[in-house]
Amino acid sequence: MGDDAFREECGVFGVYGSEEAAVHTALGLHALQHRGQEAAGIVSMEGAQFHSHRGIGHVGENFDAASGHLDRLIGRAAIGHNRYSTTGQSDLQNIQPFFAELSFGGFALAHNGNLTNAERLRQSLVETGSLMQGSTDTEVIIHLVARSHQPAPDLRLIDAMKQIEGAYALICLCPQGLIAMRDPHGIRPLCLGQIGEAYVVSSETCGLDIIGAEFIRDIAPGEMVVINGDGITSTQPLKTAPSRFCIFEYIYFSRPDSIVEGHHVYQARKHIGRELASESHIAADVIVPVPDSGVPAALGYAEASNIPFDFGIIRNHYVGRTFIQPTDAGRQAGVKMKHNANRHMVEGKRVVLVDDSIVRGTTSMKIANMMRQAGAEEVHLRIASPPTMHPCFYGVDTPDREKLIAAQMDVAEIAAHIGVDSLAFISLDGLYRALGERARDGTEPQFCDACFTGDYPIAHDAGKGVSVK
Ligand code: AMP
After folding, report:
1. Same domain (yes/no): 320, 235
2. In the chain, is it the N or the C terminus that has fewer CB atoms within a 10 Å radius of its CB?
3. For residue 399, what are the domain limits?
4. What pTM, to 2 d.p., does this model score?
């Protein structure tokens, strides 16, 4: 089994009580496409009957009108999933939502996050007779639900989740209704909305907006919500834990028009840019975002520094996100295909490039070089996150520590390596300030910031050369 199967960031969406449940789900998944482009799937429920379609590729490729798949996904409830994974393991049996016929009837499950003790649980399940079909951690949940002796599906799911550690935003569909659940730390986002009589659950609010659903509230950390003909029931069945929402959702992952955990992502990114400017101001002629993810932070930086903002780099939108190319060679080519210098805006100028993060350093090196070739006089790089020094074990794809450039070099070395005149990252306290929180002064942090600090809120099995604090 490949290690990669345990590292994925995904999008989940579900509707209960609408004649157009599958269509709404396809639209919701389309809005959440940035969270995963490898595969998409929808399972619908009509009485006790379930229907599903899952396939490799984007939502639009799988659920276009011509395919007829949506017409076959009948029923007033549906759940869907966008899958993101890096290499291999993209077999059909790993595409969600998963579905199994259990003793109480059908059970479909869509998961965003990463279960940190899944490997151990999987081994003991296999040793005691479970037959696993795919290689993802999510399948473990289905087996635990199947084995539970509790009478009702929600109680069985609670039974299962009591054994599971890690980060999860889950949506299930079963004869009892639609069940949504978030891990006790609330690491991954999940929100609740309403359209007419129907309830909607989505990874981000942009999934509600696309169908015209009204945002009700975020599902709370550790909360289980059961939606059915009787309405909504909310419980807190798991042991409570300090809330540690993923800070990287604000920096990169969530869509800028979403509101997650009370913060408007676009505004948060602008604030981060402003804070970055106040921490690392430099005299320059133009602020240039690395599109698209660097744009809001660059706007904030330009506003705060009073230096004009311009699109000095143009992005080709017809290539996937840089990370998705599995090999280094593929990633290099992908980066070249993605950006081009807008020469007239940077020639003869002192340029400040603003990007959201540096992971391997591939993008920054290529963009810095591109600016010089386009005639920039000076190239300065400002990064809207602290150095990414530790891998994520909770569902954001990050490479092993050896490939994280900030884990291998200090800031001056990175600057020399990527070829910029100066480089600065926002400080961790600056980032917290930008998000309206008190500085991280050794007290319990408000976010999961393990990728910057190595302070992992949940122990994990994976051995990537990092110690668990
Ligand atoms: P790199 O070229 O490896 O340094 O990657 C940095 C770029 O990848 C940044 O410009 C980010 O926008 C983007 N990025 C950061 N984290 C992720 C992630 N988990 N998945 C996909 N892209 C990412």
Report:
1. no
2. C
3. 264-438
4. 0.93
State CA 307 to chain mean position distance.
Answer: 32
* Residues 417-445 pLDDT 10s: 999 999 999 999 999 999 988 777 667 78
Distance between CA 383 and CA 327 in Å, rounded? 25
Residues 83 and 10: their CA atoms lie apart, in Å, by 5
Ligand 1, atom 23, lies closest to the CA of 323
Do 233 and 291 lie in a common domain? no
Residue 205 lies in a domain: yes
Q: How many residues would you count in the chain?
A: 469
- pLDDT classification of 94: cutoffs 50, 70, 90: confident
Q: Which of 9, 249, 322, 367 to mutate to test the pocket of ligand 1 (most atoms within 8 A of CB)?
A: 322
Cβ burial, residue 387 (10 Å; 0-12/13-18/19+): buried
Ligand 1 atom 3: residue of nearest CA: 360
Ligand 1: does its nearest atom lie under 6 Å from the Cβ of 394? no
Active site residue 10: yes
Cβ–ligand 1 distance for 334 under 6 Å, the answer: no
Q: How far apart are CA 160 and CA 155, in angstroms?
A: 9
In this structure, the answer to whether residues 232 and 270 fall within a common structural domain is no
Ligand 1 center from residue 390 Cα (angstroms):
14
218 lines ligand 1 (CB under 6 A): no
If one counts the domains in the chain, the total is: 2
The verdict on the CB of residue 247 being under 6 Å from ligand 1 is no
**Distance between CA atoms of 432 and 268, rounded to whole angstroms?**
10
Do 143 and 291 lie in one domain? The reply is: no
- 452 part of a folded domain: no
- Distance, CA of 302 to CA of 65 (rounded, Å): 43
Residue nearest to atom 15 of ligand 1 (CA): 357
CB of 204 within 6 A of ligand 1: the answer is no
Amino acid at 14: G
The answer to whether residue 255 is domain-embedded is: no
Could you tell me the distance, in angstroms and rounded to a whole number, from the CA of residue 123 to the centre of ligand 1? Answer: 33
- CATH code, domain with 297: 3.40.50.2020
Per the domain annotation, does 422 fall within a domain? yes
- What is d(CA 89, CA 136) in angstroms, rounded to the nearest whole number? 9
